[in-house]
Amino acid sequence: MSGADPGAKASGGDAADAAPAARQGKIAEYLASHGGPFFELQARLKLLRANALQSGKRALLFVALAWGVPFLLGLPDSLSLDHSQGAYLTDPGVWAKFFVAIAAFVLAEQQVERGLRIKLGQFSRAPLIAPTSMPSAARAISNALKQRDSGLAETVCLALAAVAALLSFLNFHTTDVSFWAVEHSAEGNRITAAGWWSICVSLPLFVFLFLRGVWRHLVWARLLRKIAQLELRLVAAHPDGKGGLGFLSQYPNAYMFFVFGMSAAIAAAVMKHLLQETLSMTTFSMIMSGWLAIVIAFFAYPLSAFSKPLARLKETGLLMFGVQATRFQRAAERKVLGRNVAADATEEPDDDVADPGKLFDATKKLSTMLISRDAVVPVAAAALIPFAVAGATRLPYKEVFSVLKKLLLL
What residues form the membrane-spanning segments (predicted)? Predict the structure, then answer.
């Protein structure tokens, strides 16, 4: 023992201290909006930097490309406000997809990256992941980073965007009316310059940004489900009522801009039917309810993985606190009566036993579901407001906003 090298001990201690720090660093590396071929392309074009996504600048640029260029190509007709002639400025789909949605998808990147990074970091700050599971957590994050950077995934997104462009091209050739993108005549349809730009640039950009955002959320969802399988240091009586995971239930709100953009695009399609007076208030309400259910399910999928460990935590906690409660109450009986009311023959220790009543009650209230309507009100509002605005153009606005209120407060 006396011959041991103190320096070796110190080095061993430093190495031990460095391991958790390295794993914490691995968690900090998860930047949801970095990486991948499209990110690298934007970096080379100086549209962003590794330490600055410059979302506002890129949103303006992409909107200018997707919405502004067709507007300029269609001048002077683009200045018309005649809806009956299919004018560019009166087309709700153009505004929703090429202006609002594309801007929202780009602006969402900063919000999503910051929100997910904070939520993931909480697992280490608490800490909620047991030390023995930290290597597995680091591996899960490394795999998620590889999936985030997948060139194949972005190629598939681009291919699907090209398919959408092809479908748009075919649709333009089969339409029987003229509008800003097509000139219809007896000889056939002629796609305008603005129409060609929307086919080749605007629509593919919209679809690509949407699919890329969905893919990256699926990567995050898979990471959360992997973490849910690890050994977690949850607290049955935690004041958040979710074992210490309450912070995670708020993560969907980081996608508020993203959901708003997609909702605007879908609401614009619904609005076209409203303008044609082919939708009733009942049908419109069902569409709003169905879309909200889809949005909530989208975010409930990764969070549902934590229901099993939370249910196990609640069951075990109630059993353990129940045992402690029995010991405490029997000790209280003996102090008051000098004996227990039931089964007093067996001698029991008179050690002081802490009252677990409050902890037992808190554990009874533990929720095994992380997703809840009140936890995602901002993202639910982002999903429904575009529909409410679209509906108010043709339906009684009091009824529309009454449906909106009911869905948000349900």
Answer: 59-75, 87-108, 152-174, 194-215, 254-275, 281-303, 375-397
Q: Which string of DSSP letters, residue by residue, matches 44-88?
A: HTTS-BTTB--HHHHHHHHHIIIIIHHHHHTTTGGG---GGGT-G
- Both 54 and 197 in a single domain? yes
The tokens describing 105, both together, are: 């998808």
What are the CA-CA distances from residue 306 to residues 97, 141, 337, 371 (Å)? 35, 17, 46, 10
The Cα–Cα gap between 49 and 69 comes to 26
Q: Is residue 116 part of a domain?
A: yes
HEC string of 145-205 equals: HHHHCCHHHHHHHHHHHHHHHHHHHHHHHHCCCCECCEEEECCEEEECHHHHHHHHHHHHH
Asked if 248 and 226 sit in the same domain, the reply is no
Distances from the Cα of 249 to the Cα of 8, 105, 175, 287, 303, angstroms: 45, 22, 46, 25, 7
Write down the residue that tokens 């409050």 correspond to.
358
Same domain (yes/no): 359, 390: yes
- Count other Cβ atoms within 10 Å, centred on residue 2: 3
Write down which residue in 233, 254, 280 finishes a domain: 233
Please state, in angstroms and rounded to a whole number, the distance separating the CA atoms of residues 42 and 35: 10
pLDDT tens for each residue of 95-128: 999 999 999 999 999 999 999 999 999 998 889 9
Q: Are residues 146 and 288 in the same domain?
A: no
Of the candidates 230, 77, 213, 16, the one whose C-alpha atom is nearest the C-alpha of residue 141 is: 230
Give me the helix-helix angle, 102-125 and 203-228, nearest 10°.
10
pLDDT at 16 over 50: no
What is the residue range of 88's domain? 17-233
Name the pTM for this structure. 0.87
Query: How far is the C-alpha of 325 from the C-alpha of 331, rounded, in Å?
Result: 10
Q: What is the per-residue pLDDT across 75-102, written as a single tens digit (0 to 9) for each? A: 998 888 887 778 899 999 999 999 999 9
Same domain, 185 and 129: yes
CA angle 272, 276, 278 (to 5 degrees): 100
**End-of-domain residue from the set 168, 202, 233:** 233
